[in-house]
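Quick note —
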Amino acid sequence: MSNNIKISYYTDACPAVRSFLTYIGSVKNCSPKTVNEYYTDLRTFFRFMKIFKGKVPDDCEFESIDISGIDIDFISSITLQDILEYMNYLKMSRSNTASTRSRKVSSLRTFFNYLCNKTGQIALNPTTELETPKKKKSLPKHLSLEQSVSLLESVDGKFAERDFCILTLFLNCGLRLSELVGIDIGRINFDEKSMVILGKGNKERVVFLNNNCIDAIKNYLAVRPAQAASPADSRALFLSRLNKRISPKTVQWIVNRQLAEAGLTDMGFSTHKLRHTAATLMYQYGHVDIRILKDILGHENLGTTEIYTHLSTEQLKNAASSTPLSSVKIKHKETK
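Predicted structure written out below.
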């Protein structure tokens, strides 16, 4: 599906939702994945609203509820209190985490803002005072420097150059999984030591490459199959054993296999944790300014990046408790 969203694809959605999806897909240039996430969020919301407002029988299956007939009068009747009931439903009945509920709040805000302020289809925006669920703050899980070295040194086998290059780019550039599989050879500039990648929300950004990344790419290109499965696949940097653009699932399998080879299984590590590792090592060892780190990672907001600033504080706490004198206590005098 292209970014110019085909309205017929969302025939089970009401006209207001369809027009909104067309707008964010073709005007705001959101990726098809993002458009579909908005679609599923809004579908869940309106299915709940039909139940909550008594528009369907009590024994109706939730997944079978049709939202295609919802009109502007129904949408205009939705209040902040109705939305709060929906948020409670997400938490209590669907066990959605604070992070998931926050995303759904964002979807509703964007949708109602479009109807109220962009197109004027409704007079009042019920999400104006809607708060975002508070998320539990936790430090991102990451590999240590020693574990990262072990992971890179564990690479071997028929596709060693490719797999080493994949891990090197993850650990040095902090790429998302989708960004890595989407790398095209033609977007790599070896003279400038940089490459252009397609990030979240279809936004391009320039990623600069250190010498190890350049060497890893060149070493892989020297053994990369010359003939890809199709002209489209020939643009891809990373190819699978079938000479097609490598898939996210295959990259996840490669990373998990190499984690096992390095003795790093059952520790909660994954491809996304390699992104956290890259950011953490840059901040801890490279002393990279947090604003620069934001641009490197392709974050929209500085707040998303600031989690890495807490790592040094955590290390200081750990250092204080790990000193060999931390267990020495005062010797109490014996009572006579």
